[in-house]
Specification:
The chain is an alpha+beta fold. The chain folds into two domains: 104 residues, Ribosome-recycling factor (Topoisomerase I, Chain A, domain 4); 68 residues, Gyrase A, domain 2 (2-Layer Sandwich). The protein has four helices and six strands, in the order αββββαββαα. The strands form two sheets. Strands 3-4-6-5 form a four-stranded antiparallel β-sheet, covered by helices on one side. A two-stranded antiparallel ribbon has the order 1-2. α1 packs antiparallel against α3, α1 runs parallel beside α4 and α3 runs antiparallel to α4. The longest helix is centred in the last third of the chain and has 38 residues.
Length: 186
């Protein structure tokens, strides 16, 4: 029975990873509010090598529409500003010689729909990860059954795996629904 428990626990772990990845990806989709995580994928040329922007500066929100970037070294102002422009995030960074200020523009209806589609796409990717975990677990249960696991225990395990899958798909749908609501709220 411990083999079946191990298979179920591995499936649950894989599904949790897919859900955690979804949550991280959804934070990167901006919903018209200033959020420092929007800049997570921006790479800055720091003394000849590329590094994430948060390795070169402190990033904070001043209010709902403004992100403040304060480099630890003033010589990094221009490279950070260029990196933000090159990332093509739709922002126009303003460098005042001390900090870089980004004003997050309000989203247009068209951009909101585009971001909503993007959120759905990320959600579908998470569901694919969840289903792949289910498929692997089901295959392992079938293999255990061939190796002598009683049929009723195998059926129980498959039912538990399917229930787990359904729970994670519902959680994924709730995350997507919440993000779409956040995006579409003006």
């Amino acid at each position: 029975m411990s083999d079946v428990t191990t298979v179920i626990n591995q499936a649950k772990e894989a599904m949790e990873k897919a859900l955690n990845h979804l949550e991280i990806e959804l934070t990167k989709i901006r919903a018209g509010k200033a959020n420092p995580s929007i800049l997570d994928n921006v790479m800055v040329d720091v003394y000849g090598s590329k590094a994430p922007i948060n390795n070169a500066a402190s990033i904070n929100t001043q209010d709902a529409r403004t992100i403040i970037i304060q480099p630890w070294d003033k010589s990094m102002l221009t490279p950070i500003e260029k990196a933000i422009q090159m990332a093509n995030l739709g922002f126009n960074p303003q460098n005042d010689g001390v900090i870089i200020r980004i004003t997050v523009p309000p989203l247009t209806e068209e951009r909101r729909r585009e971001l909503s589609k993007n959120a759905k796409s990320v959600g579908e990717d998470a569901k694919v990860g969840i289903r792949n975990a289910r498929k692997e677990a089901m295959e392992l249960v079938k293999k255990l059954q061939k190796d002598g696991l009683p049929k009723d225990e195998a059926k129980d395990a498959e039912t538990k795996i399917q229930t787990l899958t359904d729970q994670f798909v519902v959680k994924t749908d709730k995350h997507i629904e919440q993000k779409e609501k956040e995006i579409m709220t003006v």
